[in-house]
Amino acid sequence: MSTVTPARAPRITPGDLRESGVLAWTLAHLGGRRNHTEPINLFLVLGRNKRLFRGWLNFAGRLMPFGGLPRKETELVILRVAHLTECAYERGQHEHIARTVGLSTAEIDQTTRDDAPWSPRRRAILAATDQLVIRGDLDDEVWGALREHLGDADIIELVMLATHYRMLATTIHALRIQPEQRTRD
């Protein structure tokens, strides 16, 4: 069963200022300006549920960009989730962010490969990401590898990061949130 979002019309269209609220509308426009795109559709759609948007934004912000894991590793996890869930929207957003935090094009591309030459730490993190997305659990071997490199707090954050972006990919697919058009190169 594929999780690819067919090229169809959005099920819920991005809201305007009144529909999405000041916070979502402002963040969508600032993000679009930063990315050289139209306003961020994800914010304009999720903002239609203003109460939920505020809570989600607070939670998501604790994972990225204000998480405890190194930003490069956070972006590798998000890119791997986007690859595994075939979420082009999530991948497009985070390829841009990954470059801004210092990941190379080669590192970004390697998140689509199972045989990439990662360090033992990154290999453990990405193996855990794979299992969390595919199985919703970690086997003992992957757990042991994680314990060699991460403490309790970082493991908890990694599990929440990977599963949050899995949830977000599902939301993007189900609501048919469309990528923004570039406004300039």
Automatic annotation (TrEMBL):
InterPro entries: AhpD-like (IPR029032), CMD-like (IPR003779). SUPFAM superfamilies: AhpD-like (SSF69118). Gene3D superfamilies: AhpD-like. One of its GO terms (molecular function) is peroxiredoxin activity. It comes from the Bacteria. Residues 52-130 form the Carboxymuconolactone decarboxylase-like domain. The keyword DNA-binding does not apply. This is AhpD family alkylhydroperoxidase. Keywords: Oxidoreductase, Peroxidase. It comes from Flexivirga oryzae. Pfam families: CMD.
